[in-house]
């Protein structure tokens, strides 16, 4: 499995600075950033602790969605076309850090969904791909249960067949013939997600949203089967590749397990479980383990086929720059890393600054393991082992 980890910093908002928040993230270059963590000594003197991090890509606060797509999304789309593989893009981070902005965007600045759709239909027009059909499905995982966002939030069930391939029974897949068509479907899904958020007292941060775009090649025999329904027709076709976009639940929700409200605790536990399972699967895959605990959560069960075989993954860890979000930002960035502190000789250059460097192991071998650690750290839980 091929993987890449990127960090995207969002800008500090006016209302945040009015409340006294300051930007504590300094992006040093396009592969490293420094968190300037404000600290207070026991004698109440203030000082700043500097933490350096290194990633595949660091996307600064003035990076537009188009640039994010160019660096993180476009290689996935091209991979699906050129290698006929499966590609997944995860958006991770605390509430308000910019996951939905990255994925969905807005009319002025379309997100990865739109930009990927645009590239898919541009590539499809190119010679050799004209016979491809494009199908889209969009579902949500909330409290471990699946809801079809393109079919009135119908409840769905994931079942493994005899070959251990997990199918989502009843999931509506719609054939889309243009970017506008795909975006219409997406807007319907996004609307269903936000309506539910207000109606049922949950918000988008408490659910994972999975958008899947499947590419199928028409078989020459298909004209003989004109009476088939759309779904039957799709099944007669050969799957060429699949692209998944996963807008994950807010990572800080995983620590809601200590909340007094029962519902919040249950939600927090479920998010914790799924982020932990995702971490365990990524780690197991990265280490080439024979057993990958896909069954650890609904999220990993339904994404199983996107993780095995010919596949590529990009993680976009979103961070908020303000002082008030510093702890969550550090959780996202710090414990995740395969930490390597600089030699003590590097400390003390500044009496009030401690320099700590975090190198993901993949600056050696494994960025995805780093991200797995990231999820682990933010979910605020201790390592667990599952019996295989
Ligand atoms: N890079 C950015 N540039 C400009 N505005 C941004 C950026 N990232 C996020 N925002 C804005 O910040 C706000 C919160 O972002 P967003 O809704 O994407 O967060 P989120 O991580 O998806 O939160 P949640 O988990 O609660 O859904 C939105 O108003 C969004 O437009």
Describe this protein's structure:
This protein has helices at residues 14-18, 65-83, 99-103, 112-125, 179-199, 230-236, 262-286, 298-307, 326-333, 367-378, and strands spanning 2-9, 25-29, 32-40, 46-54, 57-59, 86-93, 132-142, 145-148, 154-160, 166-169, 174-176, 207-217, 238-247, 311-319, 353-358. The protein has ten helices and 15 strands. The chain has 388 residues and is an alpha/beta fold. The chain is globular and about 70 Å long. The longest helix is centred in the last third of the chain and has 25 residues, at 262-286. The protein has one domain (2-378): 3-Layer(aba) Sandwich (Kinesin). The two termini are 21 Å apart. Strands 1, 5, 6, 7, 8, 9, 10, 11, 12, 13 and 14 form an eleven-stranded mixed β-sheet that branches. Strands 2-3-4-15 form a four-stranded mixed β-sheet, with helices on one face. It is 32% helix and 28% strand. Bound molecules: adenosine-5'-triphosphate. Adenosine-5'-triphosphate (ATP) binds at residues 10-11, 93, 95-101, 203-205, 250, 318.
Helices, by number, come to 10
**Mean of all residue-level pLDDT scores:** 78
Helical content (DSSP H or I, runs of 4+):
25-40%
The small-molecule ligands in this entry are: adenosine-5'-triphosphate
Query: Which CATH-level-2 architecture?
Result: 3-Layer(aba) Sandwich
Cα radius of gyration in angstroms: 22 Å
Query: How many domains in all?
Result: 1
Outline: globular
Q: What is the SS-derived class? A: alpha/beta
Q: Could you tell me the strand content as a percent range?
A: 25-35%
What is the string of SSEs from the N terminus onward? EHEEEEHEHHEEEEEHEHEHHEHEH
| Total E-strand runs | 15
Task: Profile the largest sheet.
Answer: 11 strands, mixed
What is the CATH topology descriptor? Answer: Kinesin
Which residue ranges are poorly predicted, with pLDDT under 50 across at least 5 consecutive positions? 220-225, 338-354, 359-367, 379-388
CATH class: Alpha Beta
Distance, first to last CA: 21 Å
């Amino acid at each position: 499995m091929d993987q890449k980890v990127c960090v995207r910093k969002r800008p500090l908002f006016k209302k945040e600075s009015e409340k006294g928040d300051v930007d504590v993230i300094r992006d040093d270059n396009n592969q490293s950033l420094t968190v300037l963590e404000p600290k207070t000594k026991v004698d109440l003197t203030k000082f700043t602790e500097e933490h350096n991090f290194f990633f595949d890509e660091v996307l600064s606060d003035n990076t537009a969605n188009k640039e994010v797509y160019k660096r993180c999304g476009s290689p996935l789309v091209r991979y699906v076309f050129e290698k006929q593989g499966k590609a997944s893009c995860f958006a991770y981070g605390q509430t308000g850090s910019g996951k939905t902005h990255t994925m969905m965007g807005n009319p002025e600045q379309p997100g990865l969904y739109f930009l990927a759709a645009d590239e898919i239909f541009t590539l499809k027009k190119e010679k050799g791909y004209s016979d491809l059909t494009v199908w889209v499905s969009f579902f949500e995982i909330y409290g471990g249960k699946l809801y079809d966002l393109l079919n009135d939030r119908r409840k769905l069930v994931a079942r493994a067949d005899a070959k251990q391939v997990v199918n989502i029974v009843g999931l509506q897949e719609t054939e889309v013939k243009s970017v506008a068509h795909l975006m219409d479907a997406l807007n319907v899904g996004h609307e269903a997600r936000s309506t539910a958020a207000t109606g049922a007292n949950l918000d988008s941060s408490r659910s994972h949203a999975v958008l899947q775009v499947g590419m199928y090649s028409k078989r020459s025999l298909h004209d003989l089967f004109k009476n088939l329904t759309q779904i039957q027709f799709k099944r007669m076709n050969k799957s060429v590749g699949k692209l998944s976009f996963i807008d994950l639940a807010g990572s800080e929700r995983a620590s809601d397990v200590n909340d007094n409200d029962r519902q919040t605790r249950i939600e927090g536990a479920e998010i914790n479980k799924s982020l932990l399972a995702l971490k365990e699967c990524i780690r197991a895959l990265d280490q080439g383990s024979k057993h990958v605990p896909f069954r650890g959560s609904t999220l990993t069960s339904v994404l199983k086929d996107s993780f095995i075989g010919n596949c590529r993954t990009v993680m976009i860890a979103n961070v908020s720059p303000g002082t008030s979000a510093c702890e969550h930002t550090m959780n996202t960035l710090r414990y995740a890393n395969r930490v390597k502190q600089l030699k003590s000789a590097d400390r003390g250059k500044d009496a009030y600054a401690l320099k700590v460097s975090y190198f993901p192991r993949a600056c050696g071998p494994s960025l995805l393991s780093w991200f797995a650690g990231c999820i682990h750290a933010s979910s605020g839980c201790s390592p667990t082992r599952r019996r295989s």
